[in-house]
Amino acid sequence: MTVAALVLLVLVAGAGLALSARGERRRATWGAVALGVLLAAAGVLAWTPGPASDGVREGVVLAAALAAVTGGGPVATAVLRGLGRYNELRTTPAASERFILGTLASALWATACVGVAVLAAT
Fold this sequence. Notes:
The chain has helices at residues 2-22, 29-47, 54-83, 86-91, 93-98, 100-121. By secondary structure, the chain is mostly helical. It has one domain (2-121).
């Protein structure tokens, strides 16, 4: 099942890159949701025990790193879309506190991608 996790991680990385290329203003929230669902499915598949070659494990680690880099922007943007707006950050002190949620979302996304790689490597 690690090969399936690898395929899903490659899809996440590709979709994240495609969403990033669209630009921040044209990204739909559904894209970040789809990335999350694909990453969760990759995690479940990576957790499933089964033999995997060293090449597949290395591919999973590389794909997870790419997914973390390319998917972080769309996910953080989607989290910030209803929770914090830049104009509000300058004018409303309370809104600046919500801005930290984007950083948290980005860190959690990267951690989830690493988690899938670790699950696949064990």
